[in-house]
Amino acid sequence: MNSITQYLAFSKIISLFGILFLLHVNISNAQVQPSLGGSSRLMTNALAEMERGSYQKANEYFRQIIDTNLPIPPEMPYYFAEILYQLKQYDNSANFLNKYLELNGFKGDNYERAKALEGMLEKPLNDIKACELCDRRGYRFQACFTCDGAKELEQDCSYCKAKGIVGCSKCVGSGLITKRNVFNIVEYFECEKCAGQGRLTCPTCEGSKLETSACRTCQGVGRLQSDQICNHQAEEPRHLSAVFNRMKNH
Questions:
Q1: What is the sign of the dihedral through the CA atoms of 11, 17, 23 and 26?
Q2: Section 106-115 average pLDDT
Q3: 23 with 41, same domain?
Q4: 90 with 58, same domain?
Q5: Percent over 90 (pLDDT), the chain
Q6: Is residue 137 part of a domain?
Q7: What percent of the chain has pLDDT over 70?
Q8: Pairing relation of β-strands 165-167 and 199-201?
Q9: Are residues 114 and 97 in the same domain?
């Protein structure tokens, strides 16, 4: 094999290694930088629903991006914050807005709109903080379905096992006590504590067989969280609402 043939063969080998190296680099980059195809498609659908004013549907598309762990487009947190604001989920809106500003800062495409939304959120967030009818996220409390807001429940007395009576601790339920006289003879006397009955009225339930204790469902608070957005206005008592409705009908 002459030198030219050897050179050409060597060149082919070098070229082959170069091609393999480029393929390896491209594959590595593809693994490091995941495609935004799926999330971009969902985001496009969400923005289209926003244009139509269908915020709940747009919310569902954005939730799909989050739930499926797809790559999140840089501007998505802002748009999601705007949707949540329209749905009156102000606490969630503020969380995504803060994340957008944290990730993009003033370089974000929607920076000015984000700052405007930040100002719009101030009042509803302050209303939530001042309201005693909802939790810190703005969801209204509802009366506990177990105790109906009473915070406590009557249940079988745990001390007497719902019997209303307990054994006398002095005579151990016998009704008698023993004493030894001066002649070391055992004498029996009626128990003074239980009047010889051997039992006493339960000191916990006072014979009712029931005791009142904190509701286990609401932990004695009387209310539970709900998925209802709070309007920060107390509801009218049911009987008054019925009266007002009858007055309107007449």
A1: negative
A2: 94
A3: no
A4: yes
A5: 44
A6: no
A7: 79
A8: antiparallel
A9: yes
**Domain-located, residue 222:** yes
> Quick check: is 142 in a domain?
no
User: How far is residue 241 CA from its own chain's centroid?
Assistant: 31
In this structure, the number of other CB atoms found within 10 A of the CB of residue 39 comes to 22
Question: Does any domain span residue 27?
Answer: yes
| Residue 239: strand, helix, or coil | helix
Beta-strand relationship, 223-229 and 139-143 = antiparallel
Query: Of the given ranges (4-13, 101-110, 205-214, 221-230), which has the lowest mean pLDDT?
Result: 4-13
| Residue 117 and residue 157 in one domain | no
- Tell which residue, 151, 159, 147, 145, has the closest CA to residue 211: 159
Token duo for residue 146: 């177990």
pTM of full prediction above 0.85: no
Strand partners, 189: 177
Distance of alpha carbon 96 from alpha carbon 79, whole angstroms: 9
Distance, in Å, from the CA atom of 165 to the CA atom of 201, rounded to the nearest integer, reads 5
Q: Which CATH number goes with the domain that contains 51?
A: 1.25.40.10
**pLDDT of 48 higher than 90:** yes
Residues 150-173: tens digit of each pLDDT: 888 888 888 899 999 999 988 988
Q: Are 128 and 91 in contact (CB under 8 A)?
A: yes
What total number of domains does the chain contain?
A: 3
The C-alpha R_g of the chain, in whole angstroms, comes to: 38
Do 28 and 42 lie in a common domain? no
- Widest distance between CA atoms in the chain: 136
159 and 109 fall within a common domain: no
Residue 179 tokens read as 């004493």
Name the residue range of residue 156's domain. Answer: 152-249
